[in-house]
Design brief:
The complex is a heterodimer of chains A (about 300) and B (about 325).
Chain A: H1 24-34, H2 38-72, H3 76-89, H4 93-116, H5 121-126, H6 128-132, H7 139-172, H8 177-181, H9 183-210, H10 214-239, H11 249-260, H12 276-302
Helix pairs in contact in A: 1-7, 2-3, 2-4, 2-7, 4-7, 4-9, 7-9, 9-10, 9-12, 11-12
Chain B: E1 8-17, E2 20-30, E3 34-38, H1 45-53, E4 60-65, H2 73-79, E5 83-86, H3 98-108, H4 113-127, H5 142-154, E6 160-164, H6 172-188, E7 192-197, H7 200-206, E8 209-214, E9 217-223, H8 224-229, E10 234-239, H9 244-252, E11 257-261, E12 264-268, H10 277-285, E13 290-295, H11 300-318
Parallel strand pairs in B: 3-7, 3-8, 5-6, 6-7
Antiparallel strand pairs in B: 1-2, 1-4, 8-9, 10-12, 10-13, 11-12
Classes of the chains: A mainly alpha (about 300), B alpha/beta (about 325).
Chain lengths: ~300, ~325
């Protein structure tokens, strides 16, 4: 008999179930483990939080005069005049949401890169994949487990704040006019946020799967987003051909955002009037490449060479 | 799976790494119970375990574990529910402590959170990982890591355990403890264990059956006591004093013997000789008495080395590259 503390081996009396979402424990444990250090959480989530509060107030300010004047029973002409005056000062809600989401894209990169860049790299470094792939999970489960861990942080920085602003717009608009008249903005905000979170998460995880150190993955991610943007801007500046903007995923995401929200390109934004298919081609290629690289790397992690 | 059905069945299993033959047409069947997979470094032990888990793809042949084919996706997922694997090298879940590691891996095996948590504490108690279970694993000693690896292999209470060098990097006390645990699991808890080791004593202490692997081939397989019996032609004999007449008589009969002490001898019996009968007769004629008679077993180490030497000789004679 073994001389352990209890000297007792107990049989497991429960049941081992086959779950549909086999990756869920991996995601939950990943979120638990990556969120242990609180300082990065505070640093990366405070700016989106402050932004959400400010933009919520601005959205409220856009609708408030109409509602207040209406409730006071003043005549409709005054109400319309006040609303018009406010509209001149405060941009319309759709533009506010688009602008807000555009700013938050950068925080999504920061958060996903910080919390996601170690997900594959540290597993490889610590040999964790040998333990995972001795369990009844597939490579796809493993990928989803990591993907949703990183995407969780992206959602916290861009999707949730975007939806909160939409909620404020719904609640503060008179007669639910935002919900009835501009419901598509809510849908588009969610769609655009998920598109961006997906692309960034794929890039971060791809970088993480190629290296054994988290720091290298972080550098690779920022290089990937920053270098093409500088290059594209420089090339456009030299050649005056705006199609060079399509080299940058960051700029392409902006182009896709304007198209999705149907915001006209004018002024400096006219630079983003290049062919939309180029933007989709670049982001699509990036996504497919990342998936292919990860498929190869995860296979190597399961089938240990 | 019936009790008599082989737990592991290999047929012409081969795996090459470039020019190196890690496994060279391995065929064998292992019955339930603790089995030692013995071989020097590079013999192909770890490769075999990874093939059994489906973590490697064989170049040829088939492997079945509890009747399931690890190369088939569904079978592989299924078999991992009742197979526990303890890898040789350091494996940690980054940023997890001991309990979190075992809980997560328990959940991935199909447990719900509460079962996994309860079970994690049970197995961590069993392996003797006390307060350390709450520490970050980066702070663990080698012994703690080994215990944790065993705990995670046990969390889902598997019927089959694949243990790869479980005593690697342990101090003597930790090693003894680990061997006691493995022995307990094999003999008291009825687990089928495939224990990979290059340490003969580990296998001798924990297993009833041994497979000797060398350069990807099975050199020997069988029960340890039978294996060590093969060379059992020497007896240790103690006689009542004085023993001089007994010595003279043995010399007259031209018997092979060594005197270990005044009244204690190592005596070689001829092939086919009945244990002891001749010696008792001999003692009687010398007017003395045999006070102790016991066969001298070859240690597994002697058998192992003899097997390896024989294999090397055979390879040289065949002119095969070693």
């Amino acid at each position: 008999m073994a001389t352990t503390n209890t000297e007792l081996y107990r049989r497991f009396g429960g049941q081992l179930r086959v779950r549909f979402f086999r990756f869920a424990p991996l995601t939950l444990s990943g979120i638990r483990a990556t969120s242990k250090k609180k300082i990065p959480l505070v640093l990366l989530f405070t700016p989106p939080l402050i932004g959400t509060v400010i933009f919520s107030f601005m959205v409220y300010a856009r609708y408030a005069p109409e509602v207040i004047v209406g409730e006071m029973g003043a005549n409709q002409e005054i109400a319309a005049a006040v609303a018009e005056r406010v509209a001149e000062q405060v941009p319309d809600v759709k533009r506010q949401i688009v602008g807000f989401t555009r700013v938050l894209r950068v925080f999504a990169i920061l958060a996903i890169a910080w919390f996601g860049s170690g997900l594959f790299a540290e597993d490889r470094q610590c040999g964790a994949h040998q333990l995972y792939f001795a369990r009844p999970i597939t490579r796809l489960d493993y990928f989803f487990g990591k993907f949703f861990t990183a995407a969780f942080y992206g959602a916290g920085t861009v999707l949730v704040p975007g939806l909160v602003i939409c909620l404020v717009a719904v609640l503060s608009s008179p007669n639910w006019s935002f919900l009835t008249g501009e419901w598509d903005v809510i849908l588009k905000t969610a769609l655009y946020s998920m598109f961006w979170i997906g692309i960034v998460t794929l890039v971060v995880l791809c970088a993480s799967s190629l290296v054994k150190r988290r720091a290298f993955a972080l550098i690779a991610v920022f290089a990937f987003f920053m270098f093409p943007s500088f290059l594209a801007t420089a090339l456009v500046g030299i050649t005056k051909d705006v199609r060079f903007f399509a080299l940058s995923t960051l700029i392409n995401s902006r182009r896709i955002g304007y198209w999705l929200f149907d915001i006209a390109s004018s002024g400096p934004r006219s630079m983003l009037s290049y062919d939309l298919s180029l933007a989709f081609l670049e982001t699509g290629t990036v996504a497919v490449l990342c998936l292919v690289i990860m498929a190869i790397q995860i296979r190597r992690m399961e089938v240990v060479p | 799976m019936t009790d008599s059905a082989p737990v592991i069945a290999l047929q012409q299993l081969a795996k090459h790494y470039g020019q190196v033959r890690a496994l060279d047409g391995l065929s064998m069947e292992l019955a339930p119970g603790p089995t030692g997979l013995l071989g020097p470094n590079g013999a192909g032990k770890t490769t075999l375990l990874k093939l059994l888990l489906g973590q490697l793809v064989p170049d040829a042949g088939t492997a079945r574990i509890a009747g399931r084919n690890p190369q088939d996706r569904d079978d592989r997922l299924n078999l991992r529910r009742f197979v526990g694997y303890m890898p040789e090298n350091d494996c940690l879940l980054p940023r997890h402590n001991g309990v979190e590691t075992v809980i997560t891996l328990g959940q991935l095996s199909g447990m719900n959170y509460h079962d996994a948590m309860k079970r994690a504490h049970e197995v961590l108690d069993y392996v003797g990982l006390d307060e350390a279970r709450y520490r970050q694993m980066e702070e663990y000693s080698s012994g703690m890591k080994q215990r944790l690896k065993l705990a995670q292999a046990l969390v889902h209470d598997p019927d089959i355990l694949l243990l790869d060098e479980p005593t690697s990097g342990l101090d003597p006390k930790g090693r003894r403890h680990m061997l006691e645990l493995v022995h307990d699991l094999g003999y008291q808890q009825g687990k089928s264990i495939l224990l990979c080791s290059h340490l003969l004593r580990d296998v001798e202490k924990t297993c009833s059956t041994v497979v000797v692997l060398h350069k990807g081939k099975v050199l020997h397989t069988g029960a340890i006591n039978v294996l060590t019996h093969d060379n059992e032609t020497w007896m240790r004999v103690e006689v009542a004093s004085p023993a001089e007449r007994f010595v003279r008589r043995m010399e007259e009969l031209d018997m092979a013997f060594e005197r270990e002490a005044a009244d204690r001898f190592r005596i070689q019996l001829e092939d086919g000789a009945e244990y002891g009968d001749e010696l008792f007769d001999l003692a009687l004629t010398c007017r003395t008495a045999i006070t102790r008679l016991a066969p001298i077993r070859s240690s597994l180490e002697e058998v192992f080395l003899a097997t390896l030497e024989a294999d090397e000789r055979a390879r040289k004679e065949e002119g095969a590259p070693s």
